[in-house]
Amino acid sequence: MIELELTPKIKEWLDTPKDQRIIQEGARLLLRINRNQILYNNILRNPVKYAPTLEYQLQRIYKQRMIDTTHEEVRAMMTQVDAISEQHGFTRPARSEFQRGKRADHDQLPPEVQQLYVDNADIMRRMRDAHTKLRLINSTNSTCPDSDRYPLAKDIIRLDLQYRDNWNMYDHYVKGTPLAATVRAVDSRTASKNAVKTINLLLGKYAKQPSESQADRIRNLYNQIDNPSANLKAKMSDAGLL
Fold this sequence. Notes:
The longest helix is centred in the first third of the chain and has 42 residues, at 47-88. This protein is mainly alpha-helical. The protein is built from nine helices and no strands.
């Protein structure tokens, strides 16, 4: 069983200047991971000789753990991307203007409201392009598929949120009223709902394999929620993220 709490300790030891590292602490970390008592004893008997070996082993272990963490994060993101793809039909031809929901009174709307419709056409194009590139990534054309998928998946998720928020503003705007009022009413409902769903998904992954990048992402999402529920606050607190 992997002791996940050791990962940040390994990083802290590796980030310590070489002349300030406590070799015995590094050796104990390595022993807890590989259970190699012989190597542990050798390091303690001759720390100067075995310091490079200790550093190499901990670097290798830390790198693999980061790869595993990225894999889990990308896998969670791909679940979201698949749902977004299904909803928007990325594998089907683009829909007509009428099917995309242009309001009958579009030409009478304020320019900034009309612009939301124009912006969404561009956002959809960008999402489709990113999804096409994402589908083409595989182990034969990429040395690290997860690293190549990550920015594309992140863009699709971010653009989808912006796309849906724009539609909500566009659809719910009432002529003669300030656009700001519409943004507040829709944005808090849309962004918060999706943020809660994503947080619940990521908290499960974080519990199995925590990382600073994952923690920052969860906190950023949490900050998007206007009135977090007591249940969500408890989950965040239990995960040590509040």
